[in-house]
């Protein structure tokens, strides 16, 4: 019947057209690359974590180009080494914008370098998405967007998170020692922890500060042993927590519970004495984080790339996850704004949250920070693996806070 | 904002004793790191910034060899001769191109950057920790604890400093070396083999850096960027101890280490660098002829 034949043909035609459309949607990106410039600490004291961010950035850009790029255009990442120096970061961002003439910029690693980049971004009205800025009160630029999951008041939110976890445990501590590096971001959060402990009626057994870069933790360990706190808050960055644990072990002392603010996670996991250590995180390799298929795929890719790069620890944790989230944010913003114009991207981000692997990121608070709540959780080193133990809805299956 | 650390009740003897030990051990490491630097600077008039990079290279090599199954102490049998040869080569190049004291600072700074890049290329920037049986051993002396790695560091620092002092003071070649340091042309005129002895001293200094590397690997987690973390305090130990004096960096290092440790034990730990560098300023003002 002619009418039926026409319908069948129309149906096949529609299917054919749909197939063509789908194929073009997945076609390799083409045209002039979207150039994204940034620096990372590829050398210098921050290089160990800088390397993690480099791996994440490379794999994200490769995956973008394997799909449809950004707005159908391939993506080129112009990456320079700021050598862990904020002054060099500033110069390199100027270079990226004025000489390399990149379309967009991404933030570097660590607070001081991000602050430098922020000044340059502000001068040239560039949007700056960044991940590891630890002192939100210093972020006064309207077009900067943090993706690290920290609140605008981490000196309230992180201590609250930790002390809530301890209060809910079988044996909440009665005394606390706060020991901290004077590195700006960890220092001010640790001062918040000191205040929070006082407000909760915990006895302050000790409060000690050391200069970032301190090599000898023996006397600090000896003072902690003398003070005998139930809980030690270690405001340490990188290896400082490990050095303190080593020093405590040498004098046959370990506090019943200890929390490390921003440790180098691999070394803390493997260190003798690191068992049952607590730390802050936004992501770990277990449910419910791995209920997200995007996260699962990222974990797979990261393992491969980290192993190839020779990293002793190839697991995805806080640093790699917030780095990935920053790229997710950039992709979402460019796609949502349908533009690589900085102002358009900034306006889109202020109005739209992004569901990244660390959680829902939003920027509708003062200077794009949310106050009073963040995306952080508390994890514990249990049997050589990190397991989130608080808040309850993010706890690893079967895990609970192990107390002495 | 200045934040006062928690006020201390009268410190316990255990805290005092443990802090003294801690200062002693880290001071010994300062001394060991400073020994080679002091000899090069004081006797060869070469300010070898690359000494720190060599120490870390030695630490990484120790880590690598220990990871392959070698006993960490036994790695010295490989590291020391290799570093001796490296030190000889370095001095040969400096002598060949007549590198002055100031220029040696610049050249060795560049060498430091190259060695750091090499370390990072081979071992990445990530942290490396050598796990060894030595790290698990500690001795109890009353209420005080003494770790074996720290004891080994102290032992090696004392032994090498003393042996070097004995060599310089009592042997013919040592006296000849001191003569070279005082006036090389006159020493040569008296038949001293200036070139040979200088090459040997440079080799020894680099070998000492290799030994310091073993001590670093035994006690610390390694990262390439940490090369620079030791520069300030070891330079202070070298200058306080007197250039070219083999016992000087050890004694000065221990003084600095103990003063830092006691400061950390009784006041704010953050004041520790203030104490060590104030000592340096006072000594340099009082005795500027030390450098």
Provide a descriptive summary of the structure in words:
- The complex is a heterodimer of chains A (404) and B (291).
- Chain A has two domains: 193 residues, Rossmann fold; 146 residues, Rossmann fold.
- Helices cover 43% and strands 19% of the residues of chain A.
- In chain A, helix 9 links the parallel strand 9 and strand 10.
- In chain A, helix 2 crosses helix 10, helix 3 runs parallel beside helix 4 and helix 7 packs across helix 8.
- Chain A is globular, with a radius of gyration of 23 Å.
- Chain B has eleven helices and two strands; from the N terminus they run ααααββααααααα.
- Chain B has one domain: ABC transporter involved in vitamin B12 uptake, BtuC.
- The mean pLDDT of chain B is 91.
- With 291 residues, chain B is mainly α.
- In chain B, strands 1-2 form a two-stranded antiparallel sheet.
- At the A-B interface, helix 2, strand 7, helix 7, helix 8 and helix 9 of A face helix 1, helix 4, strand 2 and helix 10 of B.
